[in-house]
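Problem 3 from the worked examples.
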Amino acid sequence: MVFARRLAVVTALSTLVLVGVGVLVRATGSGLGCPDWPLCHGGAVPPSHQESWIEFSHRFVAMLVGFLVIGVAICAWKYYRHVPFIVWVATLTVPLVGLQGLLGAITVVRELPPEIVATHLLTAMIVLSCEIAVAIAMYVEDPATQGASLGSRPGASAIGKLALVSIVWMAFVLWIGGYMTESGAATSCEGWPLCNGSILPASDDHEVVHMAHRYLAGAFAFLIVPLVVTAWRRREEVRWAGAVAALAGVLYTAQVIVGALNVWYTFPDPLTISHTVIAASIWFTLSGAVALAYYSPAVARVPTPLTKAGAPA
């Protein structure tokens, strides 16, 4: 069981790395470095072009994550068959990763349509949430840690509700952010927080998409700030609340700063990559908070003791 739990954690962290490599592909314009799929320029090994190797590295990491997800599902059936949540979430993550691979193939074949690129990113986030949920559930169900208290249920529920609403809102922010970047709308607004000197976008479609992303990201503060405050206040009551408050607060602040710097410096690769990786880290934190708040250990089935005559005691 310890192996299964560690494998689940490694899988979740590897998916976070995969998101970072995917952003590297997009930021460097390497999305068509391998114009065919699953081969690269007709071969199993890419040619000696930087764009081809960057794109191929993304496919390689995605393949490793796929094997890790399958490994977690096997461990779930082997060690946690008595816990339906772990078994079914771990199992359903396998075809979800398959869907993610299909979206990746469509992205290449159709030459990077913005809506598919954005959906590809959001699907990766959903996969990440599933993996985090499985890892936390395995931790809670592991006999070695089953007695450990995660904190009071009412306090955790208050944090979980805010985290759940935040992650739903963030899904919209991420999707339109991915669409904005791939559609060419990222550079349509000069200046921050205004767009070309105005708080409202012009009639240009790219400006509308860009500002929609800013509006949604700005409104996200009305969810993340209450979450940080609530979690921090409950840190004595819920043992993981302090970590969630600190991570969410620091990451969101960094995300706003990096977002502004991206606009001011016209989206250099390091800032573009950092922006999405920080967003994925916020998603990681929120997913963990939801899982910790709402997951309850499976009820152990204890056989009824029998009397010497064979009748129930």
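Problem 4, a separate protein:
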Amino acid sequence: MTTLGTNLPPSLLATLAGHYYTDPTIFELEQARIFETHWFAAARAGEIDTPGKFKTVQVGRESVLLVRGRDGVLRAFLNVCRHRGAKLCVEESGETKRALQCPYHAWTYGLDGKLVAAPNLTKMPDIDRVEYGLVGVQMREWLGYAWVCLADEPPSFEDTVIGAATARLGDAELIDRWEVDSLEVGRRIVYDVKANWKLIVENFMECYHCATIHPELTEVLPEFADGYAAQYYVGHGAEFASEVQGFTVDGSEGFGKLEHLSEDQDRRYYAVTVNPQVFINLVPDHVIFHRMYPVAADRTIVECDWLYSKDVVATGKDVSRSVELFHRVNQQDFDACERCQPAMSSRAYTRGGVLVPSEHHIAEFHSWVTDKLA
């Protein structure tokens, strides 16, 4: 890594060099050594809720198929026919009654991945229908999402996902009180961000920019105007302004805190990152869950879910004021990242930039990335 060097004053730390955000070769390494080896939040499990429902998701360089079996179990497979390598499911989502059939030569697989039929298969009795079934992918469910890992030997889910989130909150049981798996999607917005995925992570990790570009957010969370991200004080939730009633764009009342939250969690905002692609935001009446899908060195798709109690969603309550607050935050953040992306190729950023004290924790993320690529 070529950076500004070691002769910086103590207030400054060097960032990654500019080519880490633009070089297609580095992006390919990240796909192989980060996104294809770590747990990846692929989809909201409750949206694949009945036998035969499926969803395809791009994870690193692989298309992954999530499908609900006839036994009610959600499973994950590589979305590749074992015959000649055609993409098995070409649609992003759908439903099949009994089986998954390749559109090329009609090799057909059960919802459990087993090969069940193919033209002239009965004339080939030596073919093991399990051995030539779909290639399985490791999957776990947590917070209502299906997390997949392409690695042959996945890292510990408890350590790298659950542990990473709960350690940042300083309380292993805090996130459980939101019962995120029981919430429902009240709104989903998909953003096509013309910036490297690391710029988005770095932006989410710091609040040095909050007073500059997030006027609505700092009205609700005034301590963010000081430039220190509350998520990096272990166990600390940023407190709402005294006159603010709810986590809404105008500070008006929300829906009342979720059932199992204590008074200590009321009127507070908590946020955590789970490397490499998840941001979780916890507020008293809802949860905001970001998933990133890096598609190129300079382009990232971000899916953002606003999750509410079943009652709020089922009764069609107006969620627009709470959605609008973080939608504006997202737009402001992603606009900033898109302004940075072209400069990553500038000679001014050849050796990178610097981090001020309230951003020093970003250096841990940079070390995590370079360690994975080493």
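Solution to problem 4. The chain has eight helices and 18 strands. The CA atoms of residues 237 and 270 lie 5 Å apart.
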